[in-house]
């Protein structure tokens, strides 16, 4: 009887030790706006799994999608205050704190994602901005992934910038998107994303602009017969971590997080690049007419946007545009 109890006691003790060994030392949180069916969520899962595996289970990252923890601005602020560990945001979104960051969202400022990466990491302007984000907001940029290029769908063919004239174009309330609509000759119509499908279906608006992945996911192709490859804004997605979080980790675990974020950003980019490569054919097969207007006409029409940016940001803004164009 005593031996049985002893064995039972040892079994319980072993079970407790095993459970303790499996428990993560760091339970961290990652918030994001996108939902569970998005490429962003797939990449966030990849990041969390890499961190868990490479840290031998010492770090466990719980993901909170679909804006459960607030919008992107709210989550940036939570990172800054140390209340949240990880989130996504576009570099241009930091213009709410540092106005010069708006340059990354100006229509046709970025040639492609490779250019955006050079503009972020290889220019003094970009280095100074990322340092400000680190020092003044308490946020570290771990890596940068590609999040799609914005295109325009409509209820009529767009073959040139002239065809944008008077088009009621749904845009989010972001300055870059509003300016794209305004200076291309369209009538900017801000509207909640959830309302766009019905508005297109009933012709309350004539068109909208989004990356191809979003156009497919929201099934806008069902109610918009035309797609113009306007390539007006390149979207990126930064992998962000709170400085407070990084300071709590050992140097070895910081490297795990950094390396995992770099790998996840590559996977993130791969998801969007591969999807975009097949989507034009997908839309064509679903009855959508795809046009390829001359984007140089569109870019020329955006000159007032650049003038307004440099007026607001002075020499810093002028230098930003100069340096970014130099690495084009």
Characterise the protein shown here.
The protein is α/β, with parallel strands linked by helices and 328 residues long. It has a single domain, classed as D-Maltodextrin-Binding Protein, domain 2 (3-Layer(aba) Sandwich). The protein has 12 helices and 9 strands. Strands 1, 2, 3, 4, 5, 6, 7, 8 and 9 form a 9-stranded mixed beta sheet that branches. Helix 2 packs antiparallel against helix 10. The longest helix is centred in the C-terminal third of the chain and has 35 residues. The N terminus is likely disordered.
Indicate the topology.
Layout: H1 2-22, E1 26-31, H2 39-54, E2 59-64, H3 72-80, E3 86-89, H4 113-121, H5 124-137, E4 139-154, E5 168-171, H6 175-183, E6 187-190, H7 196-201, E7 207-211, H8 212-217, E8 226-242, H9 243-248, H10 251-285, E9 289-291, H11 295-301, H12 303-326
């Amino acid at each position: 009887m005593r031996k049985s109890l002893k064995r039972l006691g040892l079994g319980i003790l072993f079970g407790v030790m095993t459970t303790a060994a499996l428990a993560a030392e760091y339970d961290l949180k990652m918030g994001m706006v996108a939902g569970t069916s998005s490429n962003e969520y797939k990449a966030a899962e990849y990041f969390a799994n890499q961190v868990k595996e490479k840290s031998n289970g010492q770090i466990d990252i719980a993901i909170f999608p679909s804006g459960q923890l607030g919008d992107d601005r709210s989550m940036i602020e939570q990172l800054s205050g140390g209340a949240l560990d990880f989130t996504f945001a576009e570099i241009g979104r930091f213009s709410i704190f540092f106005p010069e960051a708006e340059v990354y969202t100006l229509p046709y400022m970025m040639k492609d994602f490779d250019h955006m990466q050079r503009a972020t990491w290889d220019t003094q302007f970009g280095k100074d901005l990322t340092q400000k984000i680190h020092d003044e907001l308490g946020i570290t940029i771990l890596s940068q992934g590609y999040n799609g290029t914005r295109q325009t769908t409509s209820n009529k063919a767009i073959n040139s910038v002239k065809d944008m004239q008077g088009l009621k174009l749904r845009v989010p309330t972001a300055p870059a998107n509003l300016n794209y609509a305004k200076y291309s000759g369209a009538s900017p119509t801000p509207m909640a994303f959830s309302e766009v499908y019905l508005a297109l279906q009933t012709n309350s608006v004539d068109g909208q602009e989004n990356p191809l992945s979003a156009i497919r996911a929201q099934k806008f192709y069902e109610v918009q017969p035309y797609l113009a490859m306007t390539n007006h804004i390149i979207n990126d997605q930064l992998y962000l971590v709170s400085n407070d979080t990084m300071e709590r980790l050992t140097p070895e675990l910081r490297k795990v997080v950094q390396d995992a974020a770099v790998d996840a950003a590559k996977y993130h980019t791969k998801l969007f690049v591969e999807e975009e490569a097949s989507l034009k054919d997908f839309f064509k097969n679903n009855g959508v007419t795809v046009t390829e207007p001359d984007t140089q006409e569109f870019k020329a029409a955006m000159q007032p946007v650049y003038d307004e940016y440099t007026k607001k940001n002075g020499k810093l803004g002028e230098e930003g545009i100069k340096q970014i164009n130099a690495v084009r």
